[in-house]
UniProtKB/TrEMBL annotation:
<dbReference type="Pfam" id="PF13738">
    <property type="entry name" value="Pyr_redox_3"/>
</dbReference>
<protein>
    <submittedName>
        <fullName>NAD(P)/FAD-dependent oxidoreductase</fullName>
    </submittedName>
</protein>
<dbReference type="InterPro" id="IPR050982">
    <property type="entry name" value="Auxin_biosynth/cation_transpt"/>
</dbReference>
<keyword id="KW-0560">Oxidoreductase</keyword>
<dbReference type="InterPro" id="IPR036188">
    <property type="entry name" value="FAD/NAD-bd_sf"/>
</dbReference>
């Protein structure tokens, strides 16, 4: 069993005997089994042989896994796998060290009898309607009925990329859905952001599910172009969306197993009764603006970065930007390019990763044109990425960032000489650690770092803000910076804030924190969970789900959340 095929044969024998201990014996003592819906209806990583034995012992008889196949070459120590269970067809990836599993990833791909209607299973497009209606008539009728005379099974709050992705999955799987969004048009979430914004990740990483960007799409997408694409996507995927609609409140009726969700549309309150409620409002809560003594005295403008219109019209103005992460850097660079005098106030250290490093080092092996030409499709790249459990990710990224810090030392030295405080996450895990733990504390450099290093963006770091004056900002070291405008690029709260406001403090307390995995590092207290808290999986509140993350996460996890909702819609899963 020294190769993938041999290991799978041994696994099949152990599963056939329903012997959890024998299954665990196929793993290293510190081995990891990451399972996404294939063996259990949740997303979880089981670490160490004791946990793996217990998991296998509980789930083997229920799962009935069989027909194990691998595309790995004979003698290979890692490779893609496929198999079947009682629920459907599955995929995965196996990594071996000395014949034992270092990591084993298993994921449900399709529900038996409810497969995704794609490729060879696509619909014919022929419409046979007793009333003589064509496709356009049926779409018009569905949109008119959903939420009015027909209740959605799933109500999705938010129609940004997260909401649209889960909506598209539900539409393909035939689950009645309704998306609501406060903006006038789909895509306005992006159009309304500061003028200079362009996606920091490359196109190969940012495809939406089921409908990738065309081959001529730019490497980095401008915000308004992204907004227009999302509007097109909603129409192409035939989603049911109510714009200019907000969730006012929601209450779960445990006896009925439904939600009473009050939404405000065109000034009218409407009560919807979905069975499932998906919060797709991004991976953050409300704008976080610090309270500073003297804010009522300052005679200029001050506002949160989420309200920043862009640098146009600010030529000659003195602008303080409080913060040193993504938004702060982008806003400062935009201000300078429009002739303003920008000062960045750094309150704590920041992790910096150059965009070229993201594209050409970290993402290139699986998300790049070279990877595509080597046969690594987006689906395969997503599977490879997900196949690495978070515990293993930490180790891999610590090693990668140790090498990057050495290779790019001159770049980082210039920033530090300018007074900029750097970090690479507390344990050296870099941007992956920062993002998965707290989704903050980093900047993907698209040019602003050079402005900081050469002084075009003034920097104030190493001294606390004490108060505002009529004309500016004072610091603990006795210095004072004059300003006409203060922008607070100070981030956002956590997702559970939306639950507290719209559903109730009691439900927010019941589900606990969203995001992070219990690493014990800054912003991510323990205990260790091994997967992101409450994301894309059942929560402690029946019928409440969270959909969020970056575009790559949205693309991959929308399918998993959709499969869970479909399984409940069809009665395959009762809980």
């Amino acid at each position: 069993m020294s190769d993938v095929a041999g290991w799978l044969s041994s696994l099949d024998l152990a599963l056939g005997r329903e012997d959890g201990a024998a299954v665990a014996d196929l793993f290293l003592p510190t081995g990891l089994w990451r399972d996404f819906l294939a063996f259990d209806w949740t997303l979880a990583t089981h670490e160490g042989t004791a946990a793996i034995a217990a998991f296998a012992g509980r789930q083997v008889a229920l799962t009935r896994a069989r027909n194990w196949v691998t595309s790995a070459d004979a003698g290979a120590s890692e490779g893609f796998i496929s198999f079947e269970t009682a629920a459907g067809t599955c995929q995965g990836y196996l990594r071996l060290v000395d014949g034992k599993a270092l990591s084993f990833f298993t994921v449900l791909d399709d529900l038996r009898g409810h497969e995704f209607p794609v490729r060879s299973r696509r619909h014919t497009g022929m419409v046979g309607d007793a009333q003589g209606r064509n496709w356009a008539d049926l779409r018009t009728a569905e949109r008119a009925e959903m939420g009015v005379t027909r209740q959605p099974y799933v109500l999705v709050v938010g129609a940004g990329q997260s909401g649209l992705a889960i909506g598209a999955t539900l539409q393909l799987l035939g689950v009645p859905h309704l998306l609501i969004d406060k903006h006038p048009r789909v895509g306005d979430q992006w159009r309304s952001r500061y003028k200079s914004l362009t996606l920091h990740d490359p196109v190969w990483y940012d495809h939406m599910p089921y409908l990738p960007f065309p081959d001529h799409w730019p490497v980095y997408t401008p915000k308004d172009k992204m907004g227009d694409w999302l509007e097109f996507y909603a129409n192409a995927m035939e989603l049911n969306v109510w714009t200019e609609t907000e969730l006012v409140s929601a209450r779960h009726d445990a006896a009925a197993g439904t939600w009473h969700a009050t939404v405000r549309r065109n000034g009218e309150d409407i009560v919807l009764q979905p069975t499932q409620l998906v919060m797709a409002l991004g991976n953050a809560g409300f704008a976080r603006q610090p309270e500073i003594a003297g804010q009522d005295l300052f005679q200029g403008q001050q506002y949160h970065s989420s309200a920043h219109p862009g640098g146009a019209g600010m030529a000659g103005k003195r602008v303080i930007v409080v913060g040193a992460n993504n938004s702060a850097h982008d806003i400062c660079a935009d201000l300078v390019e429009h002739g303003a005098q920008a000062t960045m106030v750094q309150r704590s250290s920041t992790h910096i990763v150059r965009q070229s490093t993201m594209t050409d080092v970290l993402l290139k092996p699986v998300f790049s044109q070279e990877a595509v030409e080597a046969g690594i499709t987006t689906d395969r790249a997503d599977l490879l990425t997900a196949s690495v459990p978070i515990r293993l990710q930490e180790q891999v990224h610590r090693q990668a960032w140790a090498e990057i810090r050495k290779a790019e030392a001159p770049f980082y030295d210039r920033l530090e000489k300018a007074g900029f405080k750097l970090d690479f996450a507390e344990d050296g895990a870099g941007i992956s650690g920062k993002y998965l733990r707290s989704a903050s504390g980093y900047y993907i450099d698209v040019g602003a770092c050079e402005m900081v290093a050469n002084g075009r963006i003034a920097l104030k770091s190493g001294s606390e803000i004490t108060h505002l004056t009529k004309t500016g900002m004072a610091f603990a070291d006795g210095s004072h910076i004059e300003a006409d405008v203060i922008v607070y690029a100070t981030g956002f709260g956590a997702m559970e804030e939306w639950v507290a406001r719209l559903i109730g403090e009691d439900v927010a307390a019941k589900i606990g924190r969203c995001w992070g995995y219990g690493s014990g590092f800054k912003g991510d207290p323990g205990p260790w969970e091994g997967e992101l808290r409450n994301m894309w999986k059942p929560t402690a509140q029946d019928g409440l789900w969270f959909m969020g993350g970056n575009l790559a996460q949205v693309r991959f996890y929308c399918k998993l959340l959709g499969l869970q909702l479909k399984a409940r819609f069809e009665g395959i899963v009762r809980a």
